[in-house]
Amino acid sequence: MFTGLVEALGRVERALEEENGRRFAIRWPGLDPSGPMAMGESVAVNGCCLTVVALDGEVFEVQAGPETLLRTNLGAKGPGGPVNLERSLRVGDRLGGHFVQGHVDTTAELVERRREGEWDFLRFRIDPKWTPLMVEKGSIAVDGVSLTLVDVGEDWFSIMLIPHTMAVTTLGTIRPGDRVNIETDMLAKHVRKLLGKE
């Protein structure tokens, strides 16, 4: 479980093809030595929950299987590619974002980006089967970043980014045509299933 509050902007050091997926070595700059990672812990990489399988100082390794590579933007990440990083939520931590599972639903394409004062407005195109799980002023995770939806259409949604978010996450540099990982609000998913809408 995560909060969608990105802790670090990491970089892919290596991306190695494996028989059933891909293995990534990722650098977490300034990883707190007083709270080192542990083998087997969960880390959200661009909002995708992955398991640490190797450690070497600031560099850790994770593996992504075929389903993960198909459903997320991680398959397009190579050496030097930036990724948002967040360690799992601990009991007693402040919950400043919203509950994020790290189970990416799909990807969306950025189709519009414009500056509005100090903020940036972003509009994304998405498969219309996902928009019923979105509501204006509701929560969404975009590349693992907890954000508030501005507007929702049949096959699109929009968000606004404050300067801090642009400075410390991958969302500060994405451009039209880029794809991002999307996790819709898990409460909306449960309500939809209970209402028999699936």
TrEMBL record:
<dbReference type="InterPro" id="IPR026017">
    <property type="entry name" value="Lumazine-bd_dom"/>
</dbReference>
<feature type="repeat" description="Lumazine-binding">
    <location>
        <begin position="99"/>
        <end position="195"/>
    </location>
</feature>
<dbReference type="GO" id="GO:0004746">
    <property type="term" value="F:riboflavin synthase activity"/>
</dbReference>
<feature type="domain" description="Lumazine-binding">
    <location>
        <begin position="99"/>
        <end position="195"/>
    </location>
</feature>
<dbReference type="InterPro" id="IPR017938">
    <property type="entry name" value="Riboflavin_synthase-like_b-brl"/>
</dbReference>
<keyword id="KW-0808">Transferase</keyword>
<dbReference type="InterPro" id="IPR023366">
    <property type="entry name" value="ATP_synth_asu-like_sf"/>
</dbReference>
<keyword id="KW-0677">Repeat</keyword>
<dbReference type="InterPro" id="IPR001783">
    <property type="entry name" value="Lumazine-bd"/>
</dbReference>
<comment type="function">
    <text>Catalyzes the dismutation of two molecules of 6,7-dimethyl-8-ribityllumazine, resulting in the formation of riboflavin and 5-amino-6-(D-ribitylamino)uracil.</text>
</comment>
<comment type="pathway">
    <text>Cofactor biosynthesis; riboflavin biosynthesis; riboflavin from 2-hydroxy-3-oxobutyl phosphate and 5-amino-6-(D-ribitylamino)uracil: step 2/2.</text>
</comment>
<feature type="repeat" description="Lumazine-binding">
    <location>
        <begin position="1"/>
        <end position="98"/>
    </location>
</feature>
<feature type="domain" description="Lumazine-binding">
    <location>
        <begin position="1"/>
        <end position="98"/>
    </location>
</feature>
<protein>
    <recommendedName>
        <fullName>Riboflavin synthase</fullName>
        <ecNumber>2.5.1.9</ecNumber>
    </recommendedName>
</protein>
<dbReference type="Pfam" id="PF00677">
    <property type="entry name" value="Lum_binding"/>
</dbReference>
<keyword id="KW-0686">Riboflavin biosynthesis</keyword>
<dbReference type="GO" id="GO:0009231">
    <property type="term" value="P:riboflavin biosynthetic process"/>
</dbReference>
